[in-house]
Amino acid sequence: MENTDKNTEGVLTHFVLHKGNTRGHANHGWLESYHTFSFANYQNPERMNFGVLRVLNDDRVNQGMGFGKHPHDNMEIISIPLEGDLEHHDSMGNTTVIKEGDIQAMSAGTGIFHSEYNKNKDQLVKFLQIWIYPNKKNVTPRYDQVTLDLNDRHNKLQQILSPNPEDEGVWIHQDAWFHIGKFDENFAATYALKKPGNGIYAFVLKGDFAIGNIALNERDGVGIWDTNAIKITANSASAEILLMEVPMQL
Length: 250
Hints:
Elements: E1 2-4, E2 14-18, E3 24-27, E4 31-35, E5 53-61, E6 66-72, E7 76-83, E8 85-90, E9 95-99, E10 102-107, E11 112-118, E12 125-132, E13 142-147, E14 157-162, E15 170-171, E16 177-183, E17 188-192, E18 198-206, E19 209-211, E20 214-216, E21 221-224, E22 229-234, E23 239-247
Parallel strand pairs: 14-15
Antiparallel strand pairs: 1-2, 2-21, 3-4, 4-5, 5-12, 6-11, 7-10, 7-12, 8-9, 8-11, 10-13, 14-16, 16-23, 17-22, 18-21, 18-23, 19-20, 19-22
């Protein structure tokens, strides 16, 4: 659902709402994936991207299974583990495991190969894989990973990604900022956008939220533009949300 009426003070009117049950869905047995935007066999011309946000995949990988070695180029790739341990190998020589609280970013640039596997034989892996169009093409491939304190997102928005290597979280080749917040019921926060002209895509990880006049439930997403700030209110206990501020122009 898209709404682009003239803006009214206190009411968000420039937004596109993606309910969780309208996402693309693929079940390969070992992998179950929900696609907010067109991906693989899910192709929807009305859901190609939100600005430079190209892919938002919500993946579940069975025990001991995973993605074999495959290539990428000229894309910023972010992985956010939600549950379990994800083992990563790449052609840059990185071998590592990421888990909840870790954030991983890769600049594919001129080209990389990587693989991702569920490290454990006794539990699922759940993670988000996000692709962002870069603001520079054919850069030297690079890998970035950090471990953040989960307590720093309780009733606040913890920055997990930015364009700046000196800032908190990982960094990418794009004027984008990501934050995660985990809120008590009825807690409210305001997010002010960092760069004029950017939009923001909010994705609910757990619970229920209201952003302005928009009600959101678990795994709903909403893209908002033509605003300088948004107010977020948790409508359930331990509600968790991912905010992705991105340029709107490719």
